[in-house]
Design goal:
Number of helices: 12
Structural class: alpha+beta
Largest sheet: 6 strands, antiparallel
Number of domains: 2
Radius of gyration: 20 Å
CATH class of the largest domain: Alpha Beta
Bound molecules: 2-acetamido-2-deoxy-1-O-phosphono-alpha-D-glucopyranose, magnesium ion
Shape: globular
Order of helices and strands: HEEEHEEEEHHHHEEEEHHHHHH
Helix content: 40-55%
């Protein structure tokens, strides 16, 4: 790790490097130098991201675009190059590393502590959509092919059920049945895209609350992080993934499912913050399908977690036995919650659009 740290053109000599954040995929460290400067060092998961140079091309292009559009220092991520001028370092073991400037006086939340926090995360992701609306999407690589192709996720899920690699299938029959009962609906968004009824946009594709930095004092939105999955995608998926993670009343891995509910208050706050920033960019159909994006992203994450549980926890980092099953169950509970509050979700969206003069 220190060898990687030394490969980058930092100010001073690296003296400290500690684990940082809660991502499920990459390994993230905070690096401090003897000149007191901090950086974020990341080992990129090369099993998940098969073409890291292509991924780094995306990250570099998008961060440059964002920092030109909003030059305030803490309002976009900034990559630090290696001494050779590359955006990443490849070590002797074949691992890829990158380094960002640390964003001072910032926080990143696993759970919204107030409605305002969640609203601010919507401002961050809405701004991201807005600033990238004029970015040439076709120049971006697909870093994970078919990432939010929900029907294809179902194909993979069925495979995992059939293979039952870890011998866990018989204990999760009800969960499997829950997922399969919703398979038909899961293809609606992709069909609209294929028919040309939804446009392809530059999407973040992983819009969890903990992928946003807020100012530690004012708690205002600073910027969006975790840009590995930035690629052409659907706006409703960006909206939807935020709702599934942040408008839940419980953590993604909560074991007590009675605590897992959809907060319509948080849903409304996010809808407002997001559409205030980028609503004018969207087509009426895109706006109309936002709630469906929330439901399908939740369902998709549920089947991904359950598939990984069945496969023996090979994709997501876990910190206890059954962790992926717990995660899958919170997602399915949230899907049920959304189904129960479907009309209210549509009404809230219509009200917010009315207030903002959209559609
Ligand atoms: C992963 O890396 P992280 O923790 O931000 C995953 C997302 C899932 C999320 C579930 C590349 O995101 O797709 O929605 O976990 N990222 C990848 O918490 O698979
Ligand atoms: Mg993350």
């Amino acid at each position: 790790m220190l060898k990687a740290a030394n490969a980058f053109a930092v100010k001073g000599r690296p003296i400290q490097c500690e684990r940082h954040g809660h991502g499920h995929i990459n390994a993230t460290y905070r690096l401090v130098t003897d000149e007191g400067l901090s950086y974020v060092l990341q080992k990129i998961n090369r099993h998940v991201f098969k073409d890291v140079p292509a991924l780094m091309h995306n990250v570099s292009a998008v961060t440059q675009h964002l920092s030109q559009a909003d030059p305030r220092p803490r309002h976009s991520l900034r990559l630090i190059n290696t001494h050779e001028g590359s955006t990443y370092f490849l070590d002797d073991e074949g691992e890829y590393w990158r380094l960002y400037d640390y964003i001072p006086d910032s926080i990143c939340l696993d759970r919204a502590e107030s409605k305002e926090d969640f609203y601010q995360s919507a401002v961050a992701f809405g701004t991201f959509q807005n600033l990238l609306a004029d970015f040439p999407a076709e120049t971006l690589h697909e870093t994970i092919p078919r990432f939010h192709d929900t029907p294809n996720r179902y194909v993979q899920f069925r495979q995992a059920v059939q293979e039952d690699a870890a011998g866990r299938g018989r204990d999760v029959q009800e969960d499997i049945a829950f997922a399969l009962a919703r398979e038909a609906e899961a293809s609606v968004m992709m069909e609209l895209l294929q028919k040309g009824e939804l446009p392809l946009r530059v999407a973040h594709n992983d819009t969890k609350l903990n992928n946003v930095m807020l100012d530690a004092k004012t708690r205002g939105a600073l910027c969006v992080i975790d840009l590995d999955t930035v690629m052409p995608g659907l706006a409703a998926n960006d909206f939807g993934d935020s709702i599934r993670f942040g408008a839940s009343t419980a953590a993604e891995d909560e074991r007590d499912l009675s605590l897992v509910r959809i907060s319509l208050e948080l849903y409304e706050a996010y809808t407002r913050g997001f559409l205030e920033q980028c609503g004018k960019r969207f087509t009426p159909k895109e706006i109309e399908t936002l709630p469906l994006g929330a439901k399908l992203m939740t369902l998709e994450n549920g089947i991904r977690f359950l598939a990984d549980h069945l496969a023996g926890d090979v994709y997501y980092r876990i910190s206890r036995p059954g962790h992926n099953l717990d995660r899958a169950r919170t997602q399915f509970k949230l899907v049920q919650e959304m189904e129960a509050h479907w009309q209210e979700m549509a009404d809230i969206l219509a009200r917010v659009c009315g207030e903002l003069g959209l559609g």
